[in-house]
Amino acid sequence: MIAFDRRLLSHFDWTLFYLVLLISLCGLVVLYSAGYHPDSEVNLFGVASFEFASAACLKQAVYIIVGLVLMAIGMSIPTQLFYHYAFILYALSMLLLFGVAGFGVVVNGSRRWLDLGVANLQPAEFMKLGLILTMARRLSQSPPRDGKAYRLVELIVPTIVIALPMGLIMQQPDLGTALSLGTVGIAQILFMGVRPKALLTIVVTLLVLAYPAWHTLHEYQQRRIIVLVNPESDPQGSGYHITQSKIAVGSGELFGKGYGQGTQTQLEFLPEHTTDFVFSVLAEEWGFVGSVSVIALFLALVSVMLRIANRSRDLFSCLVVFGITAQFFANIVINIGMVVGLMPVVGIPLPLISYGGSALLSLMFGLGIVQGVSMRRSMFRSG
Amino acid sequence: MANSYERSAPNNTFRIWVAFGFVLLCISILILRLWYLQIVRGEFFRDRSENNRLRMIYIPPTRGIIYDRNGEVLVRNRPSFNVDLVIEDSPNPQQTVADLALIVGEDPGPLQERVLKDGKRRRFEPKLLMRDVSRDLVAKISAQRYRLPGIAINVVSTREYLYGEMSAHVLGYIREVSSEQLKSPAYSNYLMGDLVGQYGVEANLERYLRGERGSQAVIVNALGNRIGEAYLNPEKPGSNVMLTIDRKIQAVADQALTGLKGGVVVMDVRSGDILALASAPRYHPAIFTTEISKEAWSELIDPKANRLSNRILQGAFPPGSVFKIFVAAAALSEGVITPSEKIRCPGYLKFGKRAFRCHKHSGHGSVNLFEAIVQSCDVYFYTVGQRLGVDRIYRYAHDMFGFGEPTGITQGEESSGIIPSTAWKASYFKNPADKRWFPGETLPVAIGQGAVSTTPVQIARALAAVVNGGKIIRPRLVKKIVAGDGRMLEEASAEPEVVRTVDLEPAILEQLKAAMVGVVEDRRGTGHKAALPKEFHIMIGGKTGTAQVASRESGIKDEDHAWFAAYAPADKPQIVVAVILENGGHGGVAAAPVARKIFAAYFGVPEEIPAVPKIRKRAGRPAPSPAAIN
Minimal Cα–Cα distance from A192 to chain B, Å? Predict the structure, then answer.
């Protein structure tokens, strides 16, 4: 279907590829320990079952393989196609989000999934990509009129584009994803440039609005926000998570307790240690050295992605790569920040490491798009 | 394609660098934070994680076993099930307890109260909710465990009193340490919910029986489930105790008291070993480690039955005529009378304007010492008492025979009783007019009435001194104490612990013994019902007592206390038996047969052979009437 140009391969970013592979493998190693459960029989999606000590690790390996395929698909699709279908993807994702609000399946008290019979679909994952592409197209279509930075009025449309899906996802409620969507959109706008006056006006307006808004909230809603900001005020719920996570991280000390020796993890004091709190496992078992090493790998990957953004052929591609990078990085910071007690407890997985299919697959697809931008960066310049 | 897609990228390098700077800033903050948590405070969190996974569990020591003198087990331990709550593991402890109460069909109130009382316990330590629950309940609770987070069923050892109520007052009981006790430094080693000896041997030998608590660090997961052991500090089992009690004789004594109020004490006159010590009504020692119902509790503390009182040690009763033995000893030693001197008993003694009556209203005629003791003539002892004066009686009864002072059989728990004297009266009464001793008051004292009160164990000890050559010995209950590892901690020596020796001529003791043998073996003796059949050649000596009592509040005359104190064999005394039956009637009728059962058991005489078949056939013999004084 898609004509494959051999020249494309010459700009294939091997560093990007190897870093993704390396971080994913690190994730598998951590997940083997985090999901360790002796004598467990792993049922692989109803297809086969194995004797394997860590279900999360084995399933994640399958996700990674599927993810690599998606990555290949992502890089094969010409960037123009994303440009053309950006609004359609956004509109479809919005429809799905409305569908979730209407007919979604409730899991853990949140309505995030659409039951498609065969599999559950999480429309928010589509929206991540949809929003990045739409924002990239909108911003590249109408860059700042003075060619330098946006004025306040120019920001009205992009704000609505971000606010609509954010609002829908927030009421699921999935605060983490909503937050990460907003961050990405704002990052893209800031990348284009905003006049300092406009920026100041926005910040001041938000601060002024915050006070009356706070008082219109119900007491229980206020309490939820307080707990979000200060988890220790709820020692049974989020406070317990964060306390146990800090104990896990801190007790790792310099070199960690050793692989598979993390008492916080293995004794299940640490909640959700294969998903949202997987970094605590790494920090507990591998210590400061291990966690900093993985962070360094993330930093390297982010640098590579920024380099691709910088070298991209056109503004749209640049904004897409920047958006994907911003999302990737925002998730890293929010997740690790939460695990070490700097950020509120919101359910954001650690990219490439946390166990979970949807997030990994959509991320791999996104990384495929980044690779695609890299490969196509100078086709017209050179030829 | 004239759309903006073709718009080539402007030079974004500066913006990318700004973004990269922001990335570096965020990463630096994260790494600094990791540095702070893992390096600066690493040790602190390492400790926290250790505390998380390690929990110290106290291992209660196994309490020492109590044996009788022949090594028969009297008290041991059996496994039982306790229901505990680990508060930390329960999201809502009060709700959990309420659910538990519903399942077992109990009132949740007291259980919830138990959870609230925190004491010295920590959140992860199991808090005792229900002790010694039945297997049925264990099954019920286990089946519903998913509804009861934090509820655990633990197997612990519980005291088992193999013979039920038998020798309850000797053994005492254990009970949960009270909050008052926990406040005192003596109980600093105890935790709320611990069982501690509260009475009897269990209390007196608590420090031996208890052992030492061990502890175990266990590894638990977040659900509080034990998944392994870290280290163990083993508990030290309590020491085993061998009592001087002889289970078989104790059983006879207890049996004889069934349905009565009173007590029996059997002591070896050579060693001071208490072979049996029975008090009735009794209680079941095990009841104190269960939840005591209101009814059971009011029955326990009912002042009329006074079950918790050990009458042998704590009951101070007027000794009645039993006391005459010691008054006789004083009279002979002081020379106010000779054995052969006869005193006429017309049935009363006139003193001033009052007539003090003999229990035999028709009078005993002229009686010498032997006859006066055998027939328990009151007039004879009124006369002797007059000659002695109260202070000389006091000197013998108190200073020599040890009445009016604890025998030292146990620590605490013992009454002293009263031996009156002029000094006693002067200090006892506040009103100066009451402080003077009137000679007429000496007369009742001479027959063990008036202000005299003695405990049965004092009687046994004093009588033992008369028959063992004058040695006042400390009665003892403990033969030996052996530590859990077999070390001998304490062993009663073969020699008795002699408190003092009675300063009396051997001849006097012989005369008293002869008279006491007469009391039992002479057909006219008041204690003849205690005699064993002649063919067994075991002669018994003893003295009856019928102590008149008036209920304190009403002044209405109650049934008399029946006393009998005896020893055997007469020629080479081995044991003394003291029997008191509260409101039991006449000593010779009610108490002597009880003593006979003890002697029969001790000497292996078959019980069914009637003691005095001939006497029963004799008609017309007037039943002895109680002494009437006033």
Answer: 8
